[in-house]
Every structure is written in structure tokens, then in C-alpha cells.
Specification:
A hairpin with a 4-residue loop joins strand 25 and strand 26. The chain has 3 domains: 16-154, Potassium Channel Kv1.1, Chain A; 162-274 and 645-650, Serine Threonine Protein Phosphatase 5, Tetratricopeptide repeat (Alpha Horseshoe), CATH 1.25.40.420; 282-606, Kelch-type beta propeller (Neuraminidase). Helix content is 31%, strand content 26%. It has 23 helices and 40 strands. The strands form 12 sheets. It has a 4-stranded antiparallel β-sheet with strand order 8-7-4-40, with no helix packed on it. The chain has a 4-stranded antiparallel β-sheet with strand order 10-11-14-15. The longest helix is centred in the N-terminal third of the chain and has 15 residues, at 16-30. The protein is of the alpha+beta class.
Amino acid sequence: MMACLQEEEECEVADFSSNLLLNLQQFYLDQKLCDFTIKVENKEFNVHKVVISSVSDYFRAMLDHNMIENQQDSVELKGLTVAGVEPLLRLCYFGSLRLTHGNIYDVMNAANFLQILPAVNCCVQYLKKKLTFENADDLLKISDLYSIPTLRSFYRKYVLDNFLEFALTDQFLNLDSETLADYLSDDSLKITSECMLLHLVMKWYDHDPKSRRDSAEKVFGKIRFVADGWPAVYYAIQCEPFNTNPELQNLIRFADNCLSDPQMRFMVSDHKTTRVRYPKKTFIQIGGKIQPTAHDFLDFSYLPLDFSDDLSTLGWHKNHFYHRDLKRWIPLGASEMSETRTSNGTLTEVNGNAILCGGYIHQLDELGDDEMMVTNATYLFTPSDCRLRPLPSMKHPRAIHASVFLQGCLYAIGGCDDKQLLCSVEKLSNSGNNEISWSYVRPLPVSIKNHAAVACKNKIYVSGGLEYIIEETEKLWCYCPERNKWRKKKSMWEKRRRHGMVNIKDVIYVVGGINQTGVLDTVETYDVETDTWTKLDTTLPQPTYKACTIAMDDKIWLVGGRISIDTDDHIGFLMERILEYDPEEDSWSVIGRLMRTLETPACCALTLKLTPDGQTETDEIYTKYSNLVSLLTDSDVNDADALDFELNRFYNSLPKNS
């Protein structure tokens, strides 16, 4: 019994902290047991040292040392005001700060002087909440005076998010050209169309055309005429500054060339001028192979009614993009090439667009068999209108190859044709006279397919694949464009084909794949500087191959493909999931699903304009000029002749020296 009583036990007092705080607050209100006086202007505040020093770093430093103020139990705060200090003392006891437009300057000044960080943060949040286009100049002066960069960046985002509203204010009309050009260059600027943006910038220009003429090209050059197509161009040539300013003529001529000739979009050096305006990329899927179901009979007119082979796959002609906010797949619609069914091609981002090259063309014969033919066809996918436009074809048909865009050139590497594996490498580049063409470069040392490739630090790296029809490889090849030479680098830890390969912050990742031992769940990283491979401890949730693997916002997306649960299963089954790997967290997570099971589509990460509901967004300005263009192209005059007539009228109206 005595032993039990000798055991130590800690007992908590209910509501002790809250009662202690209530007592301190009451002492302050009743002015009891105060041991320090703060003098501001002509007023004195009696407080408790322990309270103010626990909140203010300024008072903590003063009262923790043998300073004269500590000895005299008082201090006079010169340069501060009662309006600024009194709310802060209340904060010390009650944890809340009373702010108004009339006292915010004084409180911010006092909070900075007294080093009360929570009060500074409260002031910043108050300024953000009260910030409007009308009072922005005054509030931003406070931000600059006290070095609060977050408030200015907050205001910038506020302008970009509400640009249509901002454009109705005097602040917009009085913007300097540098600031406006900076806003217009931002992908995050929310606007219904580039036509609407042109309409708003015209209002800004007309507010003071004389002083803004010299900076017109700097501002109007940030409008992405190509993204809206002919309506934006047709609108521009109706406007006065474009008819009299020689510099603006070049903007129209550039847009005209890009819209008339898809090859121009490949050659642009500043792809922001042709890229869709949106702050983040999404996943684009073109073609692929599906396992048909009863719902597919309408799309496959020759498909036998008794078709039920679970292992059979057919080429698909439907193309989609993934709306990351809605987590929903939306058809690309206009990108579909009639009934053409494709798979095993490559889709590579190029200057804000994408190039689809090679792969298989699928056709169903009368017996319902899926016949595949290797193609050398090359198309430009333009995200502004989701269309595929033909480009020069490759010199040799190829499928199950790899493609990489590097230093203004697109490389198609290895693969196979209808008869053999390929070691050849082709390069699509500017051949002069504003034309692009394919040419051969140094071939790979080996013929290969089912490999993967990425660009890293101005070189191309090719990993794994299938050599000599049946032999998987762990080799890594490096191509230097300047020397036109291939070099063998250190091999991966495992042989693999049909794997993924991406570059994240100059670290190369290879993911999954298959070899003679089975489907792989391993991930390896390669350091190009040290020529070393590291096998990660974190593996895929399931062994996976034939998945689409892309880099998205410095993370790895693994979309679809085949997974294997049984190690003896070398075929696996198709999956719908979308996996994301975060290198910082070293973890995989499921973030979505495919519209259906799918393998070997052409895919890449690309910027599309995504609206909250996934629908195409428009406005009255775009609609007006779109209708005018439609009237031109629907007239009895030939489409091209009608548009050329309007453009020639515009060009001929310009000064001769332009």
C-alpha cells in the first residue's frame, strides 16, 4: 500500500492555460500588478514585463538585459504613435489585432519596430484582404516601405486572375508599357481569348496613342495572335496602329506565316508567341491500342459479332486530353484523322505544339483482323485548335521508336519497319528558306526497338530496348549533336524494354519495363555527370510495362500500360490507372484513371487552355471576328484568295519603307 503511494504521478489541472490567460487579461484591464510603463506621444500604458517580452522580440531583448529602461521600469517609444502601439498591446494580451484603413500604416510601423512578427503577418493579411484596384497604389507603397514582397506578388496574381475587371479601371489605362507587357507575357493571365485581350490593349493604346506609339510593339507583341488563329489577325488589321506602325506589321506577318504554314511553328525560337495561354500542362493522348468491347461495334464496322478474344487489341482513332482539375478525359475532337487508327507512334512537344511521327496505321480487313502497316507520316498537333496538320514525312517508315526534341531539331531514333529492326536516326530541322526537312545523322551502333530516350544537358540518352529481335539490353547510349557521335555509357542494373524514361531536373529516371525474367517494378536513376546508376528502394505499386511515361511539373506520370501480378505472367493485363511519382517525397500515388484500358498511344505533356467546366471558352469579340472570317471563307471567292486579299490590302496600306 505504501509503495503505491510513493509512485509519482503527474495530474493536469483542467483549463489551467485558459484561466491563466484570463487572469492576465483581467490584470491588464484593471491595471493591477503592472511592472512596466510604455510612453507613446502623451499617453502612458501600464503593462506586465513577462507578457510584452513573450510577444515582442524588441522588449525581450530590452528586458532580458540590464538596460537603463529595465532599471527604470519604463521606456519612451519615440517615432511611434498611440494609434499604432495601443492595438499591439491589446494583441499581447488578447491575441487579436484591430485594424482599419486609418491605422494600418501606424500599426505596421510599430509592429516592425517592436519586432512583433504575428502582428506583421496580420497586417499583411489585412492588406491582401482589403486590396482593390483603386487603393492598390497606396497599399503597395506600404508594402515597399516595409519590404513586404509577398503583397506585391499577391497583387500581381490578383490582376492576372481578374484581368477583365482590371481592364475597366483607370489604373489599367494609366499603366506604363513595361508593366503591361509583363502582365501580357504571363501564362497565368486569365482571359477568354486573345481577341478580347487585343480589344483591351487597344483601349489602353487609344488612351494615349502619341506617347505609346514607340512602345506599341513591346506591348502588342505579347498578344498570341497565332493561338486565336485568323479571327485575331483579321481584328488586328482593322485597327489603326497596325495600319501605320511598321513594327506591328511584322507581328501580323509572323502570325500570317504561322497560320498559313505549319512548318513555321516548328522553327519559331520564342514559342511563347505561339503557345496557348495557360499556366500548366496536361496529358495528351493520340491513338493507341484497345481491347474492344460490345460498345465498340459502332466504331469497328468490320468487327465480327463473336469477337471475344481477351488478348486481342485493335488500333484506336479517338484522341483525348486529361483535365487535371476535373480529373476527366475530354475528346480532342478536331484532331481525329477520320477513321485512321494509330499506335506506337511518338508525340513530342516542340515549341508549345507537338509532333506526331511514325507508328502503325491499323486497318480492319473483312474478317475483322487488325492489319498494321508502319508509316513515315509526320503531323504537327496545334493545341490552340486541337488539329493535326501534315509535315514532311520521315525518310523511312518506323514504329516502336523514340523521339527527342533538342536544340531546335526533332530526332527519330531506331525502331522497326515491316521487316527489320532499325539503327538509323533521322533529324527534322530547318533546311533553309523557311522550310523543314528530314535528314539522316549518325546511326545507332546497334539496331533497336522498344527502347526509350530523353534529352539531358544538350545530349540525347537512349536506354534499353530489344536488340537483334530477341535480345533485351541494359545498354545506355549517348548522342552528342555537335560531334554527331554516339558513345556507350554505363549500363543499367537491369535489362529492360517497353519501359519509361524521363528527365527530372537533369536526373534521368527509367521506370518499369519487361525482360526475360518478367515484368519489372524497379526504378533506376542516372547521373549524367558521374555516369552512375542508382536503383531506388521505392518500387512501382505493381510491375508495369508499355505505360506512357512523361514528366509533369517535375513529377513522373505513368499512364495505363500493362501490369503483372503473377511473376510468371509475361503478358499482364491492361490498366486504367494514372500513377504519379514525387521525387521529393519518394512515393507513388494514384491520381486518376484512363477513359478506358489503353496501351501504346502517342502521348506527351502539353499546354492546353482548360476552362473550369472543360468546355471551349469564347467571348463576343472573338465571336464577332470569327464570324467575319467565316463570311470571308464561306463566300464565293476561294478561301485562301479571300483571306489573302484582306492581308494584301493591309500590307499594301503600310508605308513603303516598312
